[in-house]
Design goal:
170 residues; alpha/beta; Rossmann fold; six-stranded mixed sheet; 6 strands; 34% helix
Length: 170
C-alpha cells in the first residue's frame, strides 16, 4: 500500500499587537479598532489562520493567545478589552520579535504576518526590532491634533501603513 502525503498550503500565523493604552480611549479610537479586530478574527477563522495576540497596556505587554486557531472565545476577550495605563509598545515589539524568531525555528513553512494597531503616542523610541515578516500598522490616532507617529513606526518596521478611517465602512 502506498501512502500519499496530502499537499497543503503552509499555515499562516497572524501576530496581532493591540495598543490599549489610555490614549486610545480618545475619539472612540479603541472602540472602532475593536470592530476592525472582530472582522479580522472572523477572517482568521474562515481562513484557518493561527493567531497570536499581544496587548500593550499598563506596565508590561501581555499575551492573550499564542499561535492558536481563531475561535469564538476571542470575541469575549475583545468585548472585555478596555484601555488604560501606559504604552509598553516597545516592550511588546521586542517580545513579539523574540517569539516570532523562536516560532520560525519550530514551524519552518509557516507564513507569518504582523498587524499592529496603535495610535503611535510614544514620546520617543530607539531602533525598533526587525520582525522579519510582512506587516501592517493600523493608525487609530484621531482628533484635531495628530502627531502621525504611527506612520513613522510603520516605516521603521518596514510595514504597510493605513489609517483606520480608510478601513472602516463610511
Amino acid at each position: 500500500m502506498l501512502f500519499h502525503l496530502r499537499t497543503r498550503s503552509p499555515h499562516e500565523l497572524w501576530l496581532v499587537i493591540v495598543d490599549a493604552s489610555a490614549s486610545t480611549r480618545r475619539h472612540q479610537a479603541l472602540s472602532d479598532a475593536k470592530g476592525l479586530l472582530a472582522q479580522l478574527f472572523d477572517d482568521a477563522y474562515r481562513q484557518r489562520a493561527r493567531l497570536a495576540l499581544l496587548t500593550a497596556s499598563g506596565n508590561v505587554p501581555m499575551w492573550q493567545v499564542q499561535g492558536l486557531k481563531a475561535s469564538a472565545g476571542l470575541r469575549d476577550w475583545l468585548n472585555g478589552l478596555g484601555a488604560g495605563g501606559g504604552t509598553p509598545l516597545l516592550a511588546a515589539l521586542g517580545e513579539a520579535g523574540r517569539w516570532l524568531t523562536a516560532r520560525r525555528k519550530r514551524f519552518l513553512a509557516e507564513q507569518q504576518r504582523l498587524l499592529l494597531v496603535t495610535d503611535g503616542r510614544l514620546k520617543e523610541w530607539p531602533t525598533l526590532p526587525a520582525l522579519d515578516c510582512p506587516g501592517l500598522v493600523i493608525d487609530i490616532e484621531r482628533g484635531p491634533v495628530r502627531l502621525g507617529r504611527s506612520k513613522v513606526l510603520a516605516g521603521q518596521l518596514q510595514s504597510e501603513y493605513r489609517h483606520i478611517d480608510e478601513l472602516l465602512p463610511g
